[in-house]
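2.7 Reproducibility. Because tokenized structures are sensitive to small changes in the input, we list the exact sequence used for Helix-turn-helix protein, including any N-terminal residues retained from the expression construct. No trimming or masking was applied before prediction.
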Amino acid sequence: MVRRRVLGKQLRLLREQAGLTLEEAAPKLHFSVSKLSRIENAQVVIDIHWVKSMLDVYDVGGLRWTELLELAQEANQPGWWQAYGLGNNSYIAFETEASRLHEFTVSYVPGILQTADYARALMRAVPLQRTVEQLENEVAARIYRQRRLTAADNPLNVIVVIDEPALHRPVGGAEVQQEQLGHIAELAELDTVALHVLPTAVGAHAAMPSGFMILNFEDLDEPDMAYVEHTLGALSLDKAGDVTRARLTFERLLSDALDPTASLALVRRLAGGEFIRRSGRG
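Resulting structure tokens (single pass, no recycling of outputs):
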């Protein structure tokens, strides 16, 4: 989806450089104005033959021709998430193209750090109708995302801030939560993961109502995007003002949170048995 947006922007720029308006270019391409607009705004799958026609009309050749056709081919490749029944407008489609993720969660562990049992328990708690197959596909896709944390090529660098109460909430039961804490501790030792815990003792903080993510597409020269999950759905924000506000909020959370060393020590302590004792099982 992100590469399609990049391609659309490049095609719009080439049209403008050719001195053509939408209304002037569309008939030359045998497109309607609305179709050309949808292409440039990445609202449709962009057929490679359309791209060739546009490059001809805009008098583009040489290396630029080759680069844009390669980009069109990449943009049309099916994403791995589609095998799990997820669409191209899903959050995962954007995260897959990102180089960095900043995430704050209030009441649960970030998806990029979850175990299968923890993710399954979370999903079952949400009153959303799913078949067993759909549930297991979503769990599998969530776990698949973690491959990029250890990938040699195109790794995802993550900074997470977890509100401390999420570490004490027995999602799926005490045993599932303890396993989850151990998994966080393991992932926090990776070079790609920076773990921060926001202590309960901080009291009121900058993001009380909800968690959020910020995705950075540095390698694609695309602007950052903020993403908010809430009880009734999700919202993506790409306006500069909204993303700047999200970035400043995240920086404030980081300033209030424990550093990675202290955060890891807390998680290890809970994973080592303190969580079970607090849950009344020991």
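The mean pLDDT is 91.
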